[in-house]
């Protein structure tokens, strides 16, 4: 008999993962909306459209790659886990860089509007 029952650990893991994903999505969306709030309505729509395309395409690519996983100890599975971990670890770095750029733009005297047309 294992020292800890498996089912309660899986339930707790799912609950903690859900709470973490909700927190991450809330913080990430808040930061993005704060940044794009300075843009015109058309520029906001463009930014959000590109964001959604990028998110959906990355999910589709990941799901297609998952189709080629034969076993959980194979190189394809390990590569996908490595890609997911690297991506997860880079998110805070990119988020911090984006926040720094936004703060720097807010402090600049001319406060130039970002245009996606160029």
What does this protein structure show overall?
The protein has about 120 residues and is an all-alpha fold. The chain is built from 3 helices and no strands. The longest helix is centred in the C-terminal third of the chain and has 33 residues. The radius of gyration is 20 Å and the shape is extended. The mean pLDDT is about 85.
List its traits.
single chain, 118 residues, mainly alpha, 3 helices, 0% strand, extended
Structural class: mainly alpha
Strand content: under 5%
Measured distance between first and last alpha carbons: 65 Å
Helix count, DSSP H or I runs of 4 or more residues: 3
Q: Taking Cα atoms only, what radius of gyration do you get, to the nearest Å?
A: 20 Å
**Percent helix range:** over 70%
How many beta-strand elements?
0
Contiguous runs where pLDDT drops below 50 for at least 5 residues: none
User: How are helices and strands ordered from N to C?
Assistant: HHH
The whole-number mean of residue pLDDT values reads 83
Shape: extended
Question: Largest sheet, described in full?
Answer: none
Gist?
This protein is an all-alpha fold. It is 77% helix and 0% strand.
Topology:
Layout: H1 6-36, H2 41-67, H3 75-107
């Amino acid at each position: 008999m294992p020292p800890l029952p498996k089912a309660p650990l899986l339930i707790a893991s799912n609950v903690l993962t859900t709470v973490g994903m909700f927190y991450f999505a809330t913080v990430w969306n808040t930061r993005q909306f704060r940044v794009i709030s300075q843009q015109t309505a058309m520029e906001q729509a463009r930014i959000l459209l590109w964001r959604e395309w990028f998110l959906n395409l990355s999910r589709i690519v990941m799901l297609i790659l998952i189709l080629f996983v034969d076993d959980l100890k194979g190189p394809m599975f390990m590569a996908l886990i490595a890609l997911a971990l690297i991506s997860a670890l880079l998110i805070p770095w990119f988020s911090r860089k984006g926040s720094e750029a936004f703060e720097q733009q807010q402090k600049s005297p001319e406060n130039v509007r970002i245009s996606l047309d160029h």
